[in-house]
Design a protein that fits this description.
It contains 16 helices and 19 strands. With 497 residues, the protein is of the alpha+beta class. The protein is elongated, with a radius of gyration of 29 Å.
Length: 497
């Protein structure tokens, strides 16, 4: 406790010293916060990449001072900009006594601009011999000496801005994320898909099995929901004649938080008229393998110590056969809810008391016994109708649907259907979802009369696909937690932590 109090006292002293320096600058008419613009000529990386043509020439850079070494009448400092770090040599002979004195007063963390000529030190380090140093912004908080390691993860997520300053490798994860999103869009655009935007505020939470966030619209005086999926709006567009559409954006689900789940997350959904779930398997395989090749330069990756090969073609297996491979139980030979429950008991699978039909039990057995075994990319298809309320039934077995999920490393990455376009069947399935909701299942679908009306106008046979973008980025950046790939993950306020 005493050590904590001492460290807080020391921090307060450092904060006061920096504020005193700022007040002195203001008194001298040198308030750095009044500077509007600073013209840079080069970045740190450009200077390094083009040293031969820039040697001996003047350049102007700007960035955060990350290190400073004072040696009497000469000093060295390191400047960090958006592309990396570069060293600068600063001397009293070049700057003059007053400017050099001010430079010595500048703190680690301050944003400065430097103009000078490019040269190499005796050790061969590309540097800038400063002719002029300009304080552009005063850092009123000292940078932490150590800002990495497991013990600081919570702080890193809360103060991502400091994390990015202190751990430049973190930035690479988000640069990869940006490149990945661009690549996915590029592939879909080339295939004729149109990117669209649909509402985030909904009067009905539909398109997925999840608990929504509820808000209130004051002008309309109605409760509304943040979208849990954009599926039903995108399918309305298929009805309207947009034959290939996709949307990438934030979804919101009021569910638990762990290394795989954040209440708001990025998802992409795409729909193509006159296609089915087999076509969706093909495009899923192509999107992920091509994106890995483009962004990483390979389809063979390592995730948390496990080698994974994303090279097509990927394994495809029905849910019932996948269960049989792992447990030796064949649900094709089990026809009643009671038999299915007995099998689950024998396998020691704890069942949700609200989900005890044969189809629901098949799904729970799969999740408990099979998912974690699917390490290499695997499409698991033909899901029970009870857990697939928006999917076409399988003609050869109407208890199943033409739906698949993609699993890699024991986790789900994609979900796709041959979309249900029969308004009568859809209405009946919505009714069963409403009954489940009234029985206490807060994740069950709501009745969407307008969507039923849209289907009544006629929707062509359609294939639909959803991919969890954050999990895909975790996979391709070897990140253990979803919070590592979100710039600002949801965190409990410190005063409530």
């Amino acid at each position: 406790m005493e050590e904590t109090m001492q460290s807080e006292e020391e921090l307060n002293q450092l904060l006061q010293i920096r504020r005193d320096k700022l007040n002195k600058l203001k008194e001298e008419g040198k308030n750095p916060f009044e500077i509007r613009k600073f013209n840079r000529t080069h970045t740190s990386q450009e200077i390094k990449d083009h040293y031969e043509e820039l040697e001996g020439k003047d350049v102007t850079i700007a960035g955060r001072m990350m290190a400073k070494r004072i040696m009497g009448k000469a000093s060295f400092c390191h400047i960090q900009d958006g592309e990396g770090r570069i060293q600068s040599y600063v001397s009293i002979n070049e700057l003059g006594e007053e400017a050099y004195k001010q430079f010595k007063e500048d703190d680690i963390g301050d944003i400065i601009g430097i103009t000078g000529f490019v040269f190499k030190t005796k050790t061969g380090e590309i540097s800038i011999h400063a002719k002029e140093v300009t304080l552009l912004s005063k850092s009123l908080r000292p940078l932490p000496e150590k800002f990495h390691g497991l013990k600081d993860t919570d702080l890193r997520y809360r103060q991502r801005y400091v994390d990015l300053i202190m751990n430049p490798e973190v930035k690479n994860t988000f640069l990869t994320r940006i490149q990945l999103l661009k690549t996915i869009r590029s592939i879909l655009d080339e295939k004729g898909y149109l990117e669209v935007e649909t509402p985030i505020l909904n009067t009905i939470a539909g398109g997925a099995t999840a608990r929504p966030f509820i808000t209130h619209h004051n002008a309309l005086d109605i409760d509304m929901y943040l979208r849990i999926a954009n599926e039903l709006y995108l399918k309305r567009l298929i009805v309207g004649g947009f034959e290939k559409v996709y949307e990438m954006g934030r979804m919101f689900r009021n569910e638990g938080m762990d290394i795989k789940h954040n209440p708001e997350f990025t998802n992409i959904e795409l729909y193509a008229a006159y296609e089915d779930y087999n076509d969706m398997m093909n495009i899923t395989e192509e999107l992920i393998s091509k994106t890995a090749e483009k962004v990483l330069g390979t389809t063979k990756i390592t995730y948390q110590g496990t080698e994974i090969d994303l090279t097509p073609s990927w394994k495809r297996i029905s849910m019932i056969d996948a269960i049989k491979e792992v447990t030796s139980v064949d649900f094709n030979e089990i026809h009643s809810d009671e038999e299915a429950k007995q099998v689950a008991d024998n396998l020691k699978v704890e069942l949700d008391p609200l989900k005890l039909t044969r189809g629901e039990i098949i799904n729970q057995v799969f999740e408990a016994k099979v998912e974690e075994t699917l390490i290499q990319p695997t499409f698991v298809y033909d899901y029970p109708v009870e857990v697939s309320p928006l999917t076409k039934r399988k003609p050869s077995d109407p208890r199943l649907t033409e739906r698949f999920e993609l699993f890699i490393g024991g986790r789900e990455y994609a979900n796709a259907y041959s979309e249900l376009n029969d308004p009568i069947d859809q209405y009946e399935r919505f009714k069963k979802q409403v009954e489940a909701r009234e029985a206490g299942d807060e994740e069950a679908n709501m009745m969407d009369d307008d969507f039923i009306m849209a289907l009544e106008y006629g929707m062509p046979p359609t294939g639909g696909l959803g991919i969890g973008i954050d999990r895909l980025i975790m996979l391709l950046t070897d990140s253990a937690s979803i919070r590592d790939v979100l710039l600002f993950p949801t965190m409990k306020p410190i005063n409530n932590a």
